[in-house]
UniProtKB/TrEMBL annotation:
Cofactor: Zn(2+)
Domain Cobalamin-independent methionine synthase MetE C-terminal/archaeal: 5-329
Record keywords, A-Z: Metal-binding, Methyltransferase, Transferase, Zinc
Classification via NCBIfam families: PRK09121.1 (NF006589)
Presence of keyword Cell division: no
Documented EC number(s): 2.1.1.13
Designated name of the protein: Methionine synthase
GO BP: methylation
A Pfam family it matches: Meth_synt_2
Native source organism of the sequence: Cobetia amphilecti
Length: 344
């Protein structure tokens, strides 16, 4: 990116009410067959346009074609039975009904590549595409086959690498891996989490990002956050090893969370997508609030490596609130951009 402080979002944006019920996760589709395919493309167009109207620099599909950021990918794999659902505890936090691994996993065919090509055909702006990370995939299903989280994560890493290479060929500029599980299972992160992530990005020439957050603004997450105390130091566990890794960009949560800003120092040298928009409430940030978060982050990340972003996906929010927050992000970034340019 040549522009200073290029804005982007963590990934998901609300879906139109004619496509899926708004403000809920895992919302079932309201259309079927051909109508669903066309509906997803129309929703992607609308989502892209809303990002563009808000002045977002690095745009995405708003995850309009997936029901959920992890399970939709998993459901497209061999070895996973999505009708055989089991209830598991996700992120050590809340129960959810998820698909089961019943045999060796492999990718039948590209999962998101057609969607990415479609997004590419709609804009010349840089595009970012989100995929789930290996550890978060393992943590979002029931494994009745490998019976080893690490073994399954290595298998997923290989599959993700195949998908990522095709997304790159489709013209995606940044491929992001979502790893909220990195904020929970610290021993696994350092034993095999980062290693499997590096396997997933092996050989890629486009930029790569990892998104680590405290989750969507749903009750289970908010309740969990209330138990974390006044200082959230979870990033301290994964950051030193991530700093040494081949990942280009780290996307993290800052605004309204209790993450001490100085933890960003631990990933010095990486580009940082700084979450300056809270996705867990309906209050639209003022541009000045966004600017204040970015200014604080600038103490620990060089200006040319700072990417203003949202804390997490905005799928569970109303479209109106999400639009307001996107505009606030742009306006806040513009304030700080101006300040930086005046100093030059
Ligand atoms: Zn997130």
């Amino acid at each position: 990116m040549t522009r200073l402080l290029p804005t982007s979002t963590a990934g998901s944006l609300p879906k139109p009410s004619w496509l899926a019920e708004p403000e809920v996760l895992w919302s079932p589709w309201k259309l079927e067959g051909e109508a669903l395919i066309a509906g997803k493309q129309d929703a992607l167009r609308v989502s892209l346009q809303e990002q563009q109207h808000a002045g977002i620099d690095i745009v995405s599909d708003g995850e309009q074609s997936r029901q959920h950021f992890v399970t939709t990918f998993i459901e497209h794999l061999n070895g996973v039975d999505f009708e055989k659902r089991e209830t598991v505890k996700i992120r050590d936090r809340y129960e959810a009904s998820v698909p089961s691994v019943v045999g060796p996993v492999s990718r039948q065919k590209p999962v998101f590549v057609e969607d990415a090509k479609f997004l590419r055909s709609q804009t010349d702006q840089p595009i970012k595409w989100a995929l789930p990370g290996p550890m978060t995939m393992v943590d979002t299903l029931f494994d009745g086959h490998y019976k080893s989280r690490e073994k399954l994560a290595w298998e997923f890493a290989k599959i993700l690498n195949e998908e990522a290479k095709e997304l790159e060929a489709a013209g995606v500029d940044i491929i992001q891996f979502d790893e909220p599980a990195f904020n929970v299972f610290f021993d696994e992160v350092n034993e095999w989490g980062i290693a499997t992530l590096e396997r997933a990005i092996e050989g890629l020439k486009c930029e790569t990002a990892i998104h680590i957050c405290y989750g969507y603004g749903i009750k289970a997450n908010t309740d969990w956050k209330n138990t974390l105390g006044s200082e959230w130091r979870q990033y301290e566990e994964a950051f030193p090893k991530l700093q040494q890794s081949n990942i280009d960009i780290v996307s993290l949560e800052c605004h309204n969370s209790h993450v001490p800003m100085e933890l960003i120092e631990l990933i010095r040298g990486k580009k940082v997508m700084v979450g300056a928009i809270d996705v867990a409430n309906n209050t639209i940030e003022t541009p000045e609030e966004v600017a204040e978060t970015l200014r604080k982050a600038l103490q620990f990340v060089d200006a040319d490596k700072l990417y203003p972003c949202t804390n997490c996906g905005m799928a569970p929010l109303s479209r109106e609130v999400a639009r307001g927050k996107l505009q606030a992000l742009s306006a806040g970034a513009a304030i700080v951009r101006k300040e930086l340019e005046a100093q030059r």
